[in-house]
Amino acid sequence: MAAFLAGLAIRIELIKKRMKELGAISEETARKPEELSTNEWLLRRGLADLRGIKRTKDDRYYVVCKDEKHC
Question: pTM (2 decimals)?
Answer without folding.
Answer: 0.80
